[in-house]
Amino acid sequence: MENYLKDFDIPAKHAPEEAQLRWRNAVGIVKNRRRRFRHIVDLAKRNEQKLKVQKIQEDLRLVVTTIKAAYKFIEALKPSKEAIDAGYNINPDKIAKIIRSRNNKVLEEHQGVSGVAAELNVSLDEGVETTDLPKRQKFLGVNRYTEKPSKSFWLFVWEALHDLTLIILIVCAVVSIGVGLATEGLPKGIYDGLGIILSIFLVVMVTAISDYNQSLQFKDLDKEKKKISVHVTRDGTRQKVSIFDLVVGDVVHLSIGDQVPADGLFISGYSLLIDESSLSGESEPVNINEKNPFLLAGTKVQDGSGKMLVTTVGMRTEWGKLMETLSEGGEDETPLQVKLNGVATIIGKIGLIFAVLTFSVLTVRFLVEKAIHHEFTSWTSVDAMKLLNYFATAVTIIVVAVPEGLPLAVTLSLAFAMKKLMNDKALVRHLSACETMGSATCICTDKTGTLTTNHMVVDKIWVCGKPEEMKDGENHNTNHSDVSENVLPFLLQAIFQNTASEVVKNKDGKTSVLGTPTESALVEYGLLLGGDFDAQRREIKMLKVEPFNSVKKTMSVLVALPDGRTRAFCKGASEIVLGMCDKVIDYNGETVDLSEEFVQNITDVINGFACDALRTICLAFKDTDNNCDGIGLPDSSYTLIAVVGIKDPVRPGVKDAVRTCLAAGITVRMVTGDNINTAKAIAKECGILTEGGLAIEGPDFRNKSPDELMAIVPHIQVMARSLPLDKHKLVTNLRSIHKEVVAVTGDGTNDAPALHEADIGLAMGIAGTEVAKENADVIILDDNFSTIVNVAKWGRAVYINIQKFVQFQLTVNIVALMINFISACISGSAPLTAVQLLWVNLIMDTLGALALATEPAHEGLMNRPPVGRGVSFITRAMWRNIAGQSIYQMVVLFVFNFAGKQILGLNGSDATIIVNTFIFNTFVFCQVFNEINSRDIEKINIFRGMFSSWIFIGVMLATVIFQVIIVEFLGAFASTVPLSWQLWLLSILIGFVGMPIAVVLKCIPVERRVPKHHDGYDRLATGPEAV
After folding, report:
1. Which of 166, 562, 777, 838 has the fewest CB atoms below 10 angstroms from its CB?
2. CATH classification of 344-414+796-1003 is 3.30.70.660, yes or no?
3. With 70 as the cut, is the pLDDT of residue 72 above it?
């Protein structure tokens, strides 16, 4: 079948529009386009959106000149009387236009940022008062965007009714009722037509309920995707709030990787560089400072840090208008959805041929019989009803034959998996990622926060020429005599001045440190030494800041001391900062030259700390004679103060999770910016670095030739001191040359290219920046490696669940088509009526998808190799099971169809309808037991985990109960008669025999490649999962 699906092959990420158009054009037979393509992006609408976005961006670029020309119009915007009474002396539309136009002249007339703050009745130091929030939202606006309204349940009912085959059947039913009333009267004349209408009603309602529940799941997930938190100052304290709770007047703290949450004005900060490409389309970043203080919602902080005053929120911002446009979009289709659309198209064409043949054979036989009996010129309403029933049967064969539920089952399974993963702390942003993760062969993971707890504490420190070990972890009482009184001022200055962290007090007066875990650990250590953070920051003036980034691996500041001198502080990666030093401070607080021997001793200390799995940081300072105006901060001639060893314990369960990955054929590679000795120690503890594995440093890796990379990349297990570009290069090499399916983690702004390039980008929910999250496919909300393994497990579950459903549905398709077609050819009648086929369609389509596509993930899924690129979706094992079950069911049903009366000992006028009812009942029970068989394609034990899957059990019970109702109580509508208990027992027994047949089938070997472990040796199946 794969040869016929070439047009239905698209990449999981960044699919070109040509490929998307190709498969859409290849889809031939679709019963209900509204439903089939509900979760598929509308390319025409997407192109319209692009034009709208370009128009908004163009308008934004022109807004500066147009609004400056309309200066008088801006001045005419006055606040309402109610707003003035509430204390707000500026019109929100006016301030919005000032920000958009970046009109410094108008801003100066309002006395700058402080003047606007006064007009907004807010203190730049204390922030908004919590009691003012409702009032500010009422008069100045809420920070929410207009969204597309959710579809109601009745809209899903309406969409389900757009199925072309159901519409034709409704017409047939209406005609049948009309003819029946004219010939047989009430109530007998309406039974056939009313039976079809009731069946259609049941199909439509079940379909609509299933689709509506899916939409609610996607709606909940969409809400989670939009959750972004920001730090604000309110009531004089720093707090974390949702962007949707921001109000005009809030003081927001910005740092690298943040998204600007609203329009506003720059208050203070250092080296604040903003990427406005998402809004204006311009790729050149913009420097934000006192001269250019205008910040726009939706832009990203590329570098630096700062504080802003929120002036405009929600739909008054250009970003709000852009979000309204983008809300009309859709999700890109997944490779599995596209492939199953192809399968549905092929089977649909086959079904259409069989439907036409069935109708043709039945009609021709009917006409020949009339001719034989010389009745060709004599037509009655009974003849019309026969032809109408033949046509309805043919149309119903199309209903059954076109497996509309195949591509929709993928969406159902993905929605179910995404909901479960959300509960397990993984937010899937793109549907295809959940699917692709099941095929992952390699995970490139960060160390800090992912493999480790990210709860850091200073464990060791080298200062005044000797190492000191902290006692009792974070609760130790530091003895001030451990650090010389002459050195302590330098050490505290280096800790408190050169940091982006803040020490804050909550309403209860409890002190806490806000910032990255590494910086927080240093600041907490400084507080334990008896330092006063606020006093230090008050008495020393900050002149210049170069924030930490993953390329330089250092952070530097320049400060003005109280005595008028200027001093630079630097901290960062130990060997890098040590290389910038030519002096060291001794016990007396004096600077002495660093000899080669001294440097070697310090290097040995650093390596010793690193081998104990500690993150090593060097602190240094340099007194300067100028403010470094116009030039960068010093990069040499520093004086070393201390080497700090920070402990970050390995997360519980990580070692087991890594072992699970290796057993599943997934190679785990650690990519970190840490010292190589630290990285190796952690990697060994986690089980990542194994005997024969390669640990390499970033500079070494990036200097390798292509031939050298070809040889070493498969063996790399640890990459230390790496840059984001090294991670990107590794991912590209693994994907393009070694054909691996790569998942990569990232948390920083510079990780965005690697996240974008990887098959699956995994951003950290706690440590990750908004830029990283925006470029990721999955957000790991708890930053835990074990959660990544869980995503892989659910990805495999999705793939295998869809395989189970396809196996089940194809079996039903084949049997239903063949039984009606061959019976029509031989006997001139179809044993399964339109109503019965509609019920079968409901069992195999909506209910079948619900039962098999929502099976929960289990640990056994991680005892098999990942699905490789280009592997056939319908495997030989599946074809074996489909063929075996189909042959068994067809043989049994044909025997009863042609010799049922003799076998069952039936005679009399009702013998035919009893046999047909028995065939229908047996066919349904064959599918019930086949559905249980389909729970595992290759293993014999199909009951494992069945009773923990309440959806599966519920569907099975509902199917059996409703089958009893149809046969015993709805005979007038479904063309059935009540069966004796013996015939019921025989139907169930025949269905049950399919289970031992499935066991025999699974013992028949099919050609398959024995999977190899990631280290090259054969992996043997062991334990109960082997059965």
Report:
1. 562
2. no
3. no
